[in-house]
C-alpha cells in the first residue's frame, strides 16, 4: 500500500509541479485583480439620459410586432445622439442562444448592425474620450465567456488616454458591453488566464474546456491526497522523532507539506468542484417550469413609455431617468425606470393610465409569485423578508457597489420542506438565487473552501485578505521542494553521489525467534539485475525483512540466493543506530521505517550519501565478509530453493567460494577479508575509516 502511494505521489508531483505553481501564484493575482467586467455602476455612468422627443415612443409589443420578432426581455434607451431604441432579447428559433436586437422606438424598424464609425461614436459618448480606431471581432481573450454570446458580433474600440482603455460595443444592441485597461489586461495574463486555463482557442469550446480543466484537476486532487496521507503516516514511524528525515530537503518537504497540506488539498478539490464535474450539483437558477410560473401569462403593456417617464418626472423633482426596462412578474407587467442612483416602478398593464409610482415592487406581488413558484400543490413552508445575509445568500464585500447590484438587500426568501430556498429581489423583480441541498454542498465545497467565504472571515475582511495570499504562497513552496530536488544530486567537489533518501524505502522490522547469529537478510524484490559498470548509472539494493534477516540477490527471472549475516555485523549495526539516536536493538519497534541505505562514518554526526562506486565496493565487501564468516552448511540450501544463480557476477563468485569450502573464504579475490581490493576493511576504495553501513 505505502509503496504504491509513494510511487503515485512522486510521479504525479514531478508531472504536475509546474501546473501547481502556476495555479497557486496565478490565484494570488486573481484574488486582487479579477477578470475584466463591465459593472452595473460603470454601465449606468456611461448611459445617456433618456429624453425621447414628444410623440415617442412605441410600446415594446408594438415595435416587436412591426419588426416581426418575438422577445422575452425589453429595454428602452438611447443610442448615438438622440435616437431612442428598444433593445429586445429576441429568440432566434434555432439552437443558438437568444440575441439582443435594436429596434427604432419611433417606427419599430430593425436597426442595421453598427459600422466601425458608428461604434466609435457610441464609445465616445459612453466614455467621453476620443476614439482612436475600431475593429470587428467575434470574440477575443477578454470577451470569450458565454455570457456575451447574446451581444455578438462585437467591435473593439481603442480610446485615447494613458491607461489603454478599450471598449467592446455590441453591433446589434448598439451599447457597450465590456471595458478593459492596459494594467488590467497585463495582470490577467498572469492571473485569470492561466488560473482558469482560459486561452481563447480552448475557451471558445465550453465543453472541451470543461473536460480539460476537470481532467487536470483530478490527478491534482490525487496528488494532494496521497501527500496528505503519506505525511501523516510518516509521523508515526519513529517514537523518538516526529519528523523521521534528516536530510534538509526531505525535512523541509515533510514539514511544509504538513503545514500546507490542508490548503493544498482543499483548494485543488474545491477548484474541481467549481466545474461541477459531471453534473454532481444542481443548477442555481430556475428551471424552465419555475421560470414560466414566475413570469406568468403575458397580458401586454397598456401604458406608453412616455407616460411612465412623465409620471416619474412629476413625482421626483430633478429626476434623470437613464433606462426603462419592461419587467413581467406573476402575470403583471411593470416598467422599471433606472436613474443614476434611484429606481422607480410603474404598473404598465393597469388600464392605460399611471396610477402610482413605487420605489420597489409591492411585497404582495413578490411573495405571491414565490408561493406559486413550484406549483399550487407544493407551497413553501415559509416566505419571509430578510434584511441580513445568511450562510447561502451573501456578498463577499457588502460595502461595494457591485454587491448592491448582485446581492442586494432586502430580499424575499421562500423555504420548502425539501430544503430548497429561493431568494427574490424587490428592487429588480428577479429571482437571484435558488439553493437546494445539493447547492448547499456546492456552497461549502466550492465557495467555502476555494475562496474562504465563511462568515467569520467575511466579517473580518482584513484577516481574509491576509490569510488567502499567505496560505496560497505556502502551497507552491511545499509542492516544488520535492519534484525540483533531483533524485541524483551532484557533489561540487567529488564524484556523483546518490542521496541517502533517494533510494527505495528501507524498513527495519522485529526479528524472528533465534535471531542472530543465524539471522538472515532478505532482498526487497525491487532489485533488478544491474550491470557491474556503475559508471553506466546502475546499482543494486537490498533491505531487511521482519521474519528472516538475510541478504538476498534477486534476478529479473525471480530466482534467489541467500547468504548468512555474521552476528558481529548485526552488533555493529546496533552500535550505529545507537550513535545516531535510535534504539540499539535492531529489531525494536521504534526502529521500523528507518532508511538505512547510507554511509556511516564515526567522524560524522549523521550518515552521508554514497557515491556510486563506493556503494558498489561496499556491497562487495559486505558479501565477502558475510561469506567468510558463514557456515557453509547453512549457506547450502535445498536444490529446489535456489537456482545457483545470483543477480551479480561478484555475488555468484562469493557464494561459490563458500560452496567450494570455507577454507577458501579468505583466499579469493573478493572473499579475502582484510586484503582484497573490495574486502579490505578500512582501506577500500571508499576511504580509510569508513565501513559499509548497508543494512
Task: Give the biggest sheet.
Answer: 7 strands, antiparallel
Compute the gyration radius: what is it?
A: 38 Å
Shape: elongated
Note the gap between the termini: 23 Å
Q: β content, as a range?
A: 15-25%
- Strand arrangement, largest sheet? 3-2-1-8-9-10-11
Helix percentage range: 25-40%
**Uncertain segments:** 480-561, 631-695
**Oligomerization state:** single chain
Determine the number of helices (DSSP H or I, runs of at least 4 residues). 20
Could you give the count of β-strands? 22
Mean pLDDT: 75
Write a brief caption for the model.
The protein is of the alpha+beta class and 695 residues long. It has 20 helices and 22 strands. The protein has a seven-stranded antiparallel beta sheet. Strands 4-5-6-7 form a four-stranded antiparallel beta sheet. Strands 12-13-14-15 form a four-stranded antiparallel beta sheet.
Descriptive terms for the model:
single chain, 695 residues, alpha+beta, 7-stranded antiparallel β-sheet, 4-stranded antiparallel β-sheet, 20 helices, disordered C terminus
Please, could you describe this protein's structure?
There is one protein chain. The chain has 695 residues and is of the alpha+beta class. A seven-stranded antiparallel beta sheet has the order 3-2-1-8-9-10-11. Strands 4-5-6-7 form a four-stranded antiparallel beta sheet. The chain is elongated and about 115 Å long. The model is unreliable at 480-561 and 631-695 (pLDDT under 50).
